[in-house]
Amino acid sequence: MTSSRPSVADKRKTFHKLHEAGCFVIPNPWNVGSARYLQGLGFKALATTSSGHAHSEGYADGAQSQDDVLAHYRELAAATDIPLNADFENAFADDPEGVATNVTRCVATGVAGLSVEDSPKAYAAAGADCLYAPGIKTREQIEAVVKAVAPKPVNFLNSGAYGFTVSDLTAMGVRRISVGGSLARVAMHAFVKVAIEIAKDGKFDGFAGLISNPELNKFFSEDRKKLSL
């Protein structure tokens, strides 16, 4: 039976088209399970999170080797049918030649795009397709960045409780919204809180209202059937 899953080329074409108009949310899973669940919710693309994956593996953000990071990208790209953007930090290099070499390795993992942290003004001039300015938080800052690099699309990292909705950011001219490690921290926060309650107070109240094992089994069983089609 011929697989109906999209090729890497298909995903890259789709990803490029997503940036042409409108605004879309690109959430950040930290493992295959979270990636497949987000895909199942109907998101059009996903992005990795360096901090989320590092913490899940017992590392501080930025402490993983390039080989480990690339293996993670390869696993997520193979497990999902929608475009995956790689949070490639500083490309594990400090010079243009090193960046070029490592970006080539990253592209080979099957990701649809990748982000390198540096100066959005400089990357705009170099031909980057989408720009990201870390640290901006206010409406004034966001609108200033959007205006400064127009007509290049801008990604806003909505990793805190800034009060902006998708509609708000669309109106500001943002083309893409990511959440960085925030979803992973939501999971870790819940785990830490309940674990501390058990260790210190001997209470298990934090288990109330959890999604059930059968619910998760149902989702992932049906999800696996789709993979085999």
Structure description:
The protein has 229 residues and is an alpha/beta fold. It has one domain: TIM Barrel, CATH 3.20.20. Helix content is 49%, strand content 9%. The strands form 2 sheets. It has a 4-stranded parallel β-sheet with strand order 1-7-6-5. Helix 8 links the parallel strand 6 and strand 7. Helix 3 runs parallel beside helix 9. The radius of gyration is 19 Å and the shape is globular. The mean pLDDT is 93.
Keywords:
three-stranded parallel beta sheet; TIM Barrel; alpha/beta
Task: Describe the secondary-structure layout.
Layout: H1 8-18, E1 24-26, H2 32-40, E2 46-47, H3 50-56, H4 66-79, E3 84-87, H5 96-107, E4 113-115, H6 120-126, E5 131-132, H7 139-149, E6 154-157, H8 166-171, E7 176-178, H9 182-201, H10 213-228
Parallel strand pairs: 1-7, 2-3, 3-4, 5-6, 6-7
Helix pairs in contact: 3-9
**Fraction of residues in helix:** 40-55%
Tell me the distance between the termini.
8 Å
> If you consult CATH, what is the topology?
TIM Barrel
CATH class: Alpha Beta
Stretches with pLDDT under 50, minimum 5 residues: none
Write down the secondary-structure element order: HEHEHHEHEHEHEHEHH
Task: Count all strands and give the number.
Answer: 7
Radius of gyration using CA atoms only: 19 Å
- How would you write the strand order of the largest sheet? 1-7-6-5
Structural class: alpha/beta
Number of helices: 10
- The residue-averaged pLDDT reads 93
Give the overall form: globular
